[in-house]
Amino acid sequence: MCSDMDIYNMYFQFLDESILAFSVSIPLSLEGCRQVTRPFRGNLVCQIDGQEQNCTISCWQGYSFSRAVLPSYQCGASTNYKWSHETEDNPRLALPQCTKYKPPNKIAMVMNLAYSTNLTCDGFDPARDSLVHQTVRDKITLNVKTLSCVQDNSCSVKRAQVSGCSTQSPADQTHRRRRRSVELIQITIRLERDIHVPDQQNLTSEQVTNQNSTIEAVSELQDAALQLINKSASGQFALNVDHQVYDVDTERTQAYGMQVCPHGSVRMNAQDARCVPCESGWYENKEACYACPPGTYQSQEGSIYCQDCPRGHTTIGPGATEEEDCEVIAL
């Protein structure tokens, strides 16, 4: 432990896997502040001002964090000598770790279509609501199966759903009569196409977007989006319910594209086409990384699950990375 007079900043130089030199600052602990360790494949730079310590973290070139990081990590008199990331869930003071960028394996196009506001499913007439829901689904099937990329199997339909109109009526009839939806009845269509981008060291976002496979996929999915827009504009999604015609409100139509990451990895920036595998101790679920819950661990990067500790053992918190982190449960 350092006294008020024993405050130093020590700088080291390391070589990363690309033999590129960089510097990292590792401070000696201030009185009462525990020492933190730099991220794996990353940098820790700290500034000391009196009894205040302020640190930032970053990753080497070609690597990134797979979860959010704080703008700075602080410890000192103002924090009662506790680090800003020192919590019950993080007793080991683990900082986010860096993992190697990976290319996406698919491109997706999502289109949202909304019907005019006078078409509703209000819950008062379950039979009518069910008819509306099924009629909309039939329209989706009819229009999607005629898309060029669907017909030649170069793209796949990953989602074709109706929202704002449920076929399930509540068991409580009184509650059902009171329930009245004000949601628009919407269609969501998601198409995906495989791409093949070489996995290389120091992968850049531009290398992903400029790959021929990516360009072809984007072009084909844009064409599919245009076909759907033309179909909606020409009344091919129109419904006849109770002898009244309801159609899509073309001003509410939205379409957007995105890269799709392999299982176990996520995109951290909407403007960045690259994927980042979840760090060890974490797992991916629905395009986000989550810490392995207490009683589990994961030693591998880019996982979609966590391993259970041996029977009678648990971890002291979430995010455990090794079986050795599993300790005998105290009675």
TrEMBL record:
GO cellular component, one term: cell surface
Pfam families for the chain: Ephrin_rec_like
Domain Tyrosine-protein kinase ephrin type A/B receptor-like per the UniProt entry, residue ranges: 285-326
Superkingdom to which the source organism belongs: Eukaryota
Signal peptide: none
Family annotation (InterPro entries): SCUB_EGF-like_domain, Tyr-kin_ephrin_A/B_rcpt-like
SMART domains: Ephrin_rec_like (SM01411)
GO biological process: signal transduction
Classification via Gene3D superfamilies: Tumor Necrosis Factor Receptor, subunit A, domain 2
UniProt-recorded name of the protein: Signal peptide, CUB and EGF-like domain-containing protein 2
